[in-house]
Design brief:
This protein is of the alpha/beta class. The protein has one domain: Metallo-beta-lactamase, Chain A (4-Layer Sandwich), CATH 3.60.15. α6 links the parallel β11 and β12. The longest helix has 11 residues.
């Protein structure tokens, strides 16, 4: 299993427009503090799975040489996760003009229909157009390389898909829990024994719809993954300073970080 962080930033990205300066903000001379909107790409037993597509999705794919997608999963339909989906058109072309399977919650699929009505089709309208084959995310999605278990995580007034990936051949497991205020009992149960945990950790101070760093660390210590990465961070989180304060086995993710669980 290979896992790639395309983006690790919050909804405004880092740096954000007209970002304030001060001791509490991150050091922009460190490129690990430059964060595009959250998205990840996995290779699971030879199949390529894309999770979310924010405004920088095209540039993220170019920067990280992403040239294949077999399945697309939308965790939820907030703008920083959905607004790059039009650029999935290129992957429809690369699949020979086939619609791309798109999985989400009922609410997520409804939002995709509203934003991209021209893409809801079995085939692209023309070369260079997207086509989405919308499917409600099941509790377990079987793919040829393994399976993906899904759960619901609270995120303000909506629920977000939490995902646990298991590779059939290696047995390696990875949990991806972004954009959530807390983990449910089911989320903890699904993540038990994972090799890697990726978890929401917006900033140091509390937030009404996201975990902060302290809450993310507490959840990670409960799960006891071999390695945990914190994602979806604001400009208040400085990579070097915060990394020095984290317990062993817990680290901050950064754009372009690639993990090979087979190594």
């Amino acid at each position: 299993m290979k896992f790639l962080f395309l983006g690790t930033g919050t909804s405004q990205g880092v740096p954000m427009i007209a970002q304030p300066e001060g001791e509490e903000t991150c050091d922009l001379s460190n490129r690990k503090n430059w964060r595009t909107r959250c998205a990840v790409h996995l290779e699971l037993g030879g199949e390529h799975i894309q999770v979310d597509a924010g405004p920088e999705f095209r540039l993220q794919c170019i920067e990280n040489a992403v040239d294949s997608i077999d399945h697309f999963i939308l965790t939820h339909a907030h703008a920083d996760h959905v607004m790059g989906m039009d650029d999935l058109r290129r992957f429809c072309d690369l699949k020979g003009g086939e619609a791309l399977p798109v999985y989400s919650t009922t609410e997520g699929l409804d939002r995709v229909r509203a934003i991209f009505p021209y893409a809801i089709a079995h085939k692209p309208a023309s070369i260079g157009y997207p086509a989405f084959n919308l499917r409600r995310m099941p509790d377990r999605l079987e793919v040829s390389g393994g399976w993906i278990d899904a759960t619901r995580l609270p995120h303000g007034s909506i629920e977000v898909l939490g995902l646990v990936f298991t590779e059939k051949q290696s047995g390696k497991r990875l949990a991806y829990y972004t954009d959530c205020k807390r983990l449910t009992e089911q989320a903890y149960r699904l993540a038990e024994g994972v090799d890697v945990l990726v978890i929401d950790g917006l900033r140091h101070s509390p937030h009404q719809t996201h975990m902060n760093i302290e809450e993310a660390v507490a959840a990670a210590q409960h799960i006891k993954a071999t390695q945990t990465y914190i994602t979806h961070m604001t400009y208040f989180v400085d990579y070097k300073k915060t990394s020095s304060e984290l317990p062993d086995g817990i680290a901050l993710a950064y754009d372009g970080l690639s993990i090979n669980l087979s190594e």
